[in-house]
Structure formats: structure tokens, C-alpha cells
Amino acid sequence: GQIRRPLDAPPRQPGEVVLHLSGRRIPVDGGGIPAGLAGLSGTDWIWPAFSPRGGEVSFEARLTHRQSDVRLGARFEIDVEGLALTWDQLPLELLEMSGRLSLRFDPRRAWGAGFRLAGRTSTSDRMALSGRLQRDPGAQEADDPLAGMLEDLRVEVQNIALRGVDRQALEGVLPALRVALEPVAPAGKVDVRVQRSRAAGQPDGTFAAEVVPREVQFAPQAFRVPTRNVRGRVLVEGTRLLPRAGEERDVPAAKVRLVPLVGEWPGEVSVGCTADVGAGATGRMELFASGVDPLQRGVVGALQSAFAAPRSGYPGLDLSALSVDGRVDVDLSLIHI
Q1: Any idea of the CA torsion for 230, 233, 236, 242, to the nearest 10 degrees?
Q2: Which pTM value belongs to this model?
Q3: H helix or E strand, kind and range, residue 99
Q4: Model confidence over 257-298: pLDDT tens digits?
Q5: Residue 329 burial (C-beta neighbours within 10 Å; 0-12, 13-18, 19+)
Q6: What is the pLDDT of residues 242-258, one digit of tens each?
Q7: Rounded to whole angstroms, how far apart are CA atoms 238 and 142?
Q8: Half-sphere exposure of 221 toward its Cβ, with a 13 Å CA cutoff?
């Protein structure tokens, strides 16, 4: 690198510095990395926020400081291998993470980060995490280093289990997820894709998610017929994916669409479902079943109880008067206002 200082400069005037640094296979648990970041303004939140551990890091860095700068400027290209980390806002343990992280620190207080990592979670086959974070240069100075954040994040998880430690961790910070899953008691595995973005003037940001069942079974509480071999897509979109600091349940509801879900009921019955549920839990659901045997007590009993109103004394649909030989198709529309 270079260190330059004019001969006629005042005694306390700093010189100009340009340094190139590199390191290979540095252990993450050695303590040297957070000590190195401590010299850069606005980085003290990084290590506690992600709790990296294990694995190794290689890097290339360029540090600059000009006479007019009040802070150090820096560029880092970091390659990680075998890393484990846990993001404090979404405490899902990420394992065997490998990839590249790019960091930029501007002397004017702005900073940015880009990353592309791949690994797995405890109950999934693979997880990919990519995106960009940037401190808005136009944002006012704040105590919170994440204030005025611009972001574009993408998460893809393959074959993640609907039961186990991953689901428990997600439900801990996303109460709406627990409310949505408990009534249908899902089991099996799904693929999940989530994209979250936040632009200037959008403190909450927006998110969109896609859930694709692989080997899934439902056992709904309101319609007690187990549904096997579920496949299709569930689309979710809304704002503020995570609660604000200090909030537990005050998370805006999202819009949910089933487009559609299809599966099988007992007795070789094919069933499909489409739904469009708004942010206020209002919406419409269409249910289609082909080849229902009227003598199949489980399915018929579930249809009857689904329309029951115990408080008013209405027992539900009475199908006992029907005399049907063979199988029937069922088409139901459920509207919640």
C-alpha cells in the first residue's frame, strides 16, 4: 500500500492512506475478524446480529483515507466456507454456509453489502440466501445502524420439514405462521421462496413468498378428513415480514392465495381447493371433490359438521334423506366476510 503526506502539511494533518490486505483460511472462531471490523464505523452490530461460528474465511481488502475524510473507506471481498450463523431477527440456524460476501464502507457514513450464500438448515436439504443491503445516504444520523436501510433479500429453502426445530424457530417470531398452520396440522416437506424488499420511504417494506408442497398431508380441524399427496402452490404477500422491536403479535396480516392445492381423500377421492384470503381474514374458498362415495361416513360426516352452527342449534347438512347409488362430485364455495 501507500501512505502519503505532503512535506508542507501542518503537523497534525493526517496523510492519505491506501492499503491492500488479504488473508487465507482464517478461522471464524479465532476472534481476529470482529477485532478487525471494530476499526470501521457502524460495524459493531454485525457480529451480534448474525453470531457467525465455525468455518473459515478468506478475504481481499482495500482501505483508503484521504485528507478530507472523517472516516475510513473500505472494500472487502470475503469468501466463507463451512460457516454456521443465526440471524437475531429470524433465529433459524443456518449450517454449512459457503459463498461470497461483499462489503463497502463509504467515508461519508453510507455503507452497503451484497451476498450470495448457500447451505442448509436443520430440517432442509438446501438453503440459498442472496441479496443486497445499503444504508440510505440521504437518511439522517440515527442511533440505530439499520435505520434508513435499503434492502433486497431472497431466500430459497428446498425440502424443509413442516415439523421440527425450523418450524418452531419461525413460529417464535412469526405468530401469524403458527395461527395459519395449526388448524390444518400439516406434515411433510415443502419448498419455500421468500423475497423481501425495502426502498427509501418504506420503513416496513414488502415481501412475497411461495410455498410448494412436496410430500404433504393435511389433517384440518374444521374439516376432519385427512388429505394426502397435497401439491400445488401457496402465494403470500404483505408488508413487514417481521415484528418491530418490542412487538410480539402486532404483525399485519398477509394476503394468501391457493392456486390451487390438489390432493386425495380416503376412498380414492380427488380433491382440489382454491382460495383468496385478504389481509383482514375475509375471502373466498372453492372446494372441488370428485368421486365421493355417499356411504363413506368420514367424508359425509365432515361435510355435515363443516356447515354446523352449534351456538344456534343448527346441526349442519342433513344428508340422510338422500338415496344415491354410485359416486358424486362435490362443489363447495365458502365465503367469510
Answers
A1: 60
A2: 0.78
A3: strand 90-105
A4: 888 889 998 888 999 988 888 766 677 888 898 988 877 777
A5: exposed
A6: 555 555 545 555 788 88
A7: 27
A8: 7
End-to-end CA distance of the chain: 68
- CB contact at 8 A, 166 and 92: yes
Q: Report which of 257, 270, 285 is spatially closest to residue 330, judged by C-alpha positions.
A: 270
pLDDT attached to residue 71: 74
Asked whether the beta carbons of 202 and 220 are under 8 A apart, the reply is no
One-character DSSP codes across 159-177 = EEESSSHHHHHHHHH-HHH
**Cβ-based burial of 161 (10 A; exposed 0-12, middle 13-18, buried ≥19):** middle
DSSP, collapsed to helix, strand or coil, labels residue 72 as: coil
| CA 200 – CA 20 distance, rounded (Å) | 33
Specify the length of the chain in residues: 337
CA contacts within 13 A on the Cβ side of 243:
16
What is d(CA 159, CA 124) in angstroms, rounded to the nearest whole number? 5
Strands (DSSP E) contained in 121-205 are 126-135, 149-161, 187-198
Q: To which H or E segment does residue 79 belong? A: strand 73-87
Whole-number Å distance between alpha carbons of 88 and 50: 6
Kindly list the distances between the CA atom of residue 59 and the CA atoms of 102, 238, 240, in Å, as whole numbers in the listed order: 10, 37, 34
Q: Which three cell numbers stand for residue 275?
A: 382460495
Q: Are 62 and 162 in contact (CB under 8 A)?
A: no
